[in-house]
Design brief:
single chain, 133 residues, mainly alpha, elongated
């Protein structure tokens, strides 16, 4: 399993991946970003029961929308975008979320690292006889 993970993360046993010379950094077009945001909001609305979604996201942006109408759905999609998805557009928050998830995964895989002290890792290695000559 570790070998598969290593090959998947570091193909050719290289840590630095350099992009081909012909590629340029491309930015997504505004319609593409909007379509992705709408799809994410729709996916969120699909996992929440309809009465709860109406309670949480309905009536805020379209108070005159008829229950079950397209206007109500558009209003709820806009509300989901503003309340749920907008915080993840901040790169600082997203970076910290990714680091927190990575730390949680490492803590589950290697519980010795969960307490965060480097001394305990050295003690653990000495206890197991690793690194002694």
């Amino acid at each position: 399993m570790l070998l598969t993970l290593r090959v998947g993360l570091f193909p050719g046993d290289t840590l630095v991946v350099t992009p081909p010379a012909s590629s340029t950094v491309s930015t997504r077009s505004l319609p593409s970003v909007g379509a992705s945001r709408r799809a994410a909001a729709l996916a969120i609305l699909n996992v929440i029961p309809q009465p709860v979604a109406r309670l949480l996201f309905g009536n805020a942006s379209s108070p005159n929308a008829v229950k079950g109408s397209r206007d109500e759905l558009e209003g709820m999609l806009e509300a989901v975008g503003m309340t749920v998805l907008a915080p993840f557009e901040d790169s600082y928050i997203t970076k910290h979320l990714a680091i927190a998830v990575l730390e949680a995964v490492v803590a589950k895989v290697v519980p010795e690292l969960a307490n965060g002290s480097a001394g305990s890792i050295a003690e653990l290695l000495a206890e197991r006889g690793v690194g002694e000559e």
